[in-house]
Amino acid sequence: MASRHTVLPGFRVTLGFTILYLCLIVVLPLLTLPARTATLPWSSIWRTISDPRVVASYKLSVSTSLWAAGVNAIFGLLVAWVLVRYQFPGKRIIDALIDLPFALPTAVAGITLTTLYAPNGWIGKPLDRWGIKVAFTPLGIIVALVFIGLPFVVRTLQPVIEDLEVEIEEAATSLGASRGVVLWRIILPYLFPAWLTGFALSFARAVGEYGSVVFISGNMPMTTEISPFLIMTKLEQYDYAGATAIAVVMLLISFVLLLTVNALQSWSSRKLAH
Amino acid sequence: MAGHAGPLRTARATTARGLTEPAPVRWLLTAVALGFLGLFLVVPLAAVFVEAFGKGLNAYLSAVSEPDAYAALKLTLIAAGIAVPLNMLFGLCAAWAIGKFDFRGKNLLTTLIDLPFAVSPVISGMVFVLMFGRQGVFGPWLSAHDIKIIFAVPGIVLATLFVSFPFVAREIIPVMEASGSQEEEAARVLGASGFQTFFRVTLPNIKWGLLYGVILCNARAMGEFGAVSVVSGHIRGLTNTLPLHVEILYNEYNFQGAFAVASLLAFLALITLLLKVIVERRSIQA
Fold it and tell me: Rounded CA gap, A230 and B47, in Å?
């Protein structure tokens, strides 16, 4: 209900269509997941999710996602800083390319990274000589997840770095603070909440990622099999109950982690306000 | 994400005021950042095209003009052709209702619109299998009436609708909120009809945001893999989109063919990025 009088038309029609379409395409389909879970006996859910192969996939998905989000947090901060603060030739093109992982279909990213990092690939071959194997190992999964998650950190940090008030840095510098102190005591704390957000977004994307990972991971049970792949396998065997159980736990894991990061974030921005 | 105003300006201002790191540090940081981006973005992008054209132009052309590739392209265009206009209509309605009116539950509505972003692609596809699959909620009814949704084109369209759902709405809701409703109210008071007001006043204000959202929505609709893979059943020539066709060729060890088709999608990605830059620049000028 519109709370104040307005001359603008179409409120009921547009809101009605919005809610109807949202329910049909998003809400109702998503509700089938908890509905299905409710019909399953606890023992069968527990049997599925305590299967060592499933547990291994959860551990793998969460740990590779954390590693990838960590790498992205470090390099994403660096890239965002360099893109906003420094000048170099080709900057606009590089800046546009940051969104490539959003725009490039994940299957294309998957087969390309696999070819590059395979033992006979452009990057895999020299690494192989050093005894480092990337494709078909957890390291390969991390590489794919770094690719997928990079824009989240960079694009979250860029506007915040642009909004940094130069005057504050100027004041600190004129009061005798060294560049290192300014970076460490003023700039990093200011960027911290956005940095955490970028980390969380990158992590959340990584946990559920499928297309870019399935090619490079090799999908070997217990070692390189991610949870979304297991869901896919169960669905292909028409084991809807198993797939549902794995999916619900996956959603719970990412929900809890995101809640944690949100709490950290509000704590750090409250600290910043004081 | 739209239109960050002036990285160049900030860079110049800070350098001019001496508020920057010493030159060697700057060079080192720039080199590391560019090295990282080169390794993770430029090399893979280049590799797609090198692998695609590795066996010559003729091999490339025969791979992309093969009937199954053509059928996959057609299905991709059909799915995006349905999903993008519908999600655009939804985005416009949602932005009009949320941006121009006050009502209870607005925040909840905005959060729900973003939901598809938070869900794994595999789960996005899976919920449609749970609804319409053989043992799904409507499974028995559908098979009694001989209607196929999963492992058929409707399933692919539904999954595409789901994953590309929020893009237009989330781009134009902030724009509509920011532009307020005074201009529209003035138009109405001066006697314009609802549609005249929308097309003459609102649309010019939001056109760049709208275009931006449509570009992103289209890229996702054409490129989606996980969700579509769950509902497709991978029937060659019938339920394969371009990304799924890439997978099939790759798994058959037809690498050259896989990369040839992949290069079409990579090309689409480059066009998306280019359009994005153009739209961003226009929306800053506007």
Answer: 29
Residues of A in contact with B262 (CB under 8 A): 105, 107-108, 111-112
Name the band, by pLDDT with cuts 50, 70 and 90, for residue B8: low
For the entire predicted model, the pTM comes to 0.91
CA B217/CA B85 separation, integer angstroms: 10
Please give the residue of chain A at the shortest CA–CA distance from B128.
A29
Q: Which of B37, B201, B274 to mutate to test the interface with A (most CBs of A within 10 A)?
A: B37
**Spans of chain A below 50 pLDDT:** 1-3
Cβ distance A201 to B114 under 8 Å? no
Look at the alpha carbons of B68, B70, B72, B74 in this order and tell me if their dihedral is positive or negative: negative
pLDDT value of residue A1: 45
Find all residues with CB under 8 Å of A194, minimum gap 6, and list them: A156, A157, A160
Q: Which residues of B touch A215 (CB under 8 A)?
A: 250
| Element (DSSP H or E) covering residue A94 | helix A91-97
Closest CA to B89 of B223, B217, B194: B217
Q: Which amino acid is at B140?
A: P
Nearest chain B CA: its distance from A77 CA (Å) = 9
